[in-house]
Amino acid sequence: MIVVATNVVAYLYLPGEYTALAEALLETTSAAWAVPVLWRSEFRNILAGCLRRNELSFENAVALQLEAESLVAGNEYEVDSRKILELVRDSNCSAYDCEFVALAQNLNTQVVTADKKILQAFPDTAISLRAG
Q1: Which residue among 31, 44, 108, 121 sits deepest, i.e. has the most Cβ atoms within 10 Å of its Cβ?
Q2: Is 127 helix (H, G, I), strand (E, B) or coil?
């Protein structure tokens, strides 16, 4: 199992610079993708931006949300608030970012992300999507 940041899920479903890397990660890893429950709100917010910029239709946005939810079904986790706040205290990352790191640490795995701040603050836990 690996933890994936919301940006990795978004890259998988929304064509862009990192889409091929996200697709390759999905194809080459046998590990299930795990996420904190927070990912749903983050992904919906990304879709909201696409809707507002007229990059997606409403029906496409709904379909992408459902497809992404299916991808991680059964692998969404609540994360301990104390652990998140400890990571916040010890880094310059947001509590949102620290949820992914805390989950990876709880599951004894790594978080795959394209977020440079997470990669820099947590080199033992975070790996770059490029390295995935």
Answers
A1: 121
A2: strand
